[in-house]
């Protein structure tokens, strides 16, 4: 299968988007050069820090304060993406009160993976055309030969982020475009990006009461943490659509990749997700760690989440492969 760029947009999408709809969230159907340059900067700089992390840790060590800050920031942002952007906003696996809705939108924005409405629109389009013509980030885009797959893996992992064609938000996320709270959070993405980058050095500086503490916290808690979370998230698009076990029926090539489960907060149990997209739990088999599902359960027990779509045994068995 080869996905051509000209086929990537469904025929139902209009070629012109009214200005009122474009301004409802950040961005339109075209990604300009300034956006692409900024995107490249926010990918390249944290990635260079991630590459430097091993020699830095070997030469100067990694302090407990930096480790704690990086871990808290990582899993706060990660669960903001998995519980908030993905299972709640994209697939409506549960309902929330207003406070939790806003908190999840902000937490997900701390991952610096784009405004919430843009993220949701892209992911809903991915599910509509998963691993077929129109999928924004299928690793099978260029075909099934080894060279084509390598090129496709690069595209699925991060190449697609620089595509000038953007998913129309008013087509794929009209509910969020109309939501005043989420529209405001989406427009303030620059603020959440700034907060995500500056909060670790602020905490590190105050705890150590030194500029060195602020600098090392920025390195580990901001740069390395952002890069690691980016590449774990993008690996769900690339690796989990190329390899992995497929115990459940789905109309694409999504697979379960166990060694990504902890760092992806349960998202790498990807085969079940594509077999049952609205399920609040992705790791449904014995031993499959899914911290996002556990967090949703705690929200439910606290009364902050309701109408959670938990998979029962019959629902799971109905989706198993023969």
TrEMBL record:
A Pfam family hit: FA_desaturase
Keywords, sorted A to Z: Fatty acid metabolism, Iron, Lipid metabolism, Membrane, Oxidoreductase, Transmembrane, Transmembrane helix
CDD domains: Delta9-FADS-like (cd03505)
Membrane topology designation: Multi-pass membrane protein
Domain of life of the native organism: Bacteria
Subcellular location field: Membrane
Keyword Transmembrane: yes
UniProt key word Nucleotide-binding: no
InterPro entries from the UniProt entry: Acyl-CoA_DS, FA_desaturase_dom
Residue span, Fatty acid desaturase domain: 64-278
Bilayer-crossing regions: 37-61, 67-89, 188-211
PANTHER family: ACYL-COA DESATURASE, BLL4393 PROTEIN
Family per record: Belongs to the fatty acid desaturase type 2 family.
Protein name as catalogued: Fatty acid desaturase
């Amino acid at each position: 299968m080869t996905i051509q760029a000209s086929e990537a947009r469904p025929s139902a999408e209009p070629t012109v988007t009214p200005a009122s709809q474009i301004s409802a969230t950040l961005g339109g159907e075209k990604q300009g050069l300034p956006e692409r340059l900024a995107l490249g900067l926010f990918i390249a700089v944290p990635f260079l820090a991630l590459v430097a992390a091993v020699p830095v840790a070997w030469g100067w060590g990694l302090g407990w304060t930096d480790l704690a800050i990086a871990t808290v920031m990582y899993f706060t942002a990660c669960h903001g993406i998995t519980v908030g952007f993905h299972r709640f906003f994209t697939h409506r696996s549960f309902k929330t009160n207003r406070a939790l809705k806003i908190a999840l939108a902000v937490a997900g924005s701390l991952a610096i993976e784009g405004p919430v409405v843009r993220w949701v629109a892209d992911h809903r389009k991915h599910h509509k055309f998963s691993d077929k013509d129109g999928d924004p980030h299928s690793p099978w885009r260029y075909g099934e030969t080894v060279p084509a797959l390598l090129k496709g893996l690069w595209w699925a992992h991060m190449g697609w982020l620089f595509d000038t064609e953007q998913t129309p938000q008013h087509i794929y996320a009209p509910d969020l475009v109309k939501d005043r709270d989420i529209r405001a959070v989406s427009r303030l993405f620059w603020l959440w990006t700034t907060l995500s980058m500056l909060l670790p050095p602020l905490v590190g500086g105050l705890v150590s009461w030194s500029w060195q503490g602020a600098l090392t916290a920025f390195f580990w808690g901001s740069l390395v943490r952002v890069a690691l979370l980016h590449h774990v998230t993008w690996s769900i698009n690339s690796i989990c659509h190329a390899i992995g076990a497929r115990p459940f029926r789905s109309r694409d090539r999504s697979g379960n990749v166990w060694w990504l489960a902890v760092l992806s907060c349960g998202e790498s149990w990807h085969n079940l997700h594509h077999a049952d997209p609205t399920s609040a739990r992705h790791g449904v088999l014995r031993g499959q760690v899914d911290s996002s599902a556990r967090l949703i359960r705690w929200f439910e027990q606290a009364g902050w989440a309701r109408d959670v779509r938990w998979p029962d045994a019959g629902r799971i068995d109905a989706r198993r492969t023969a």
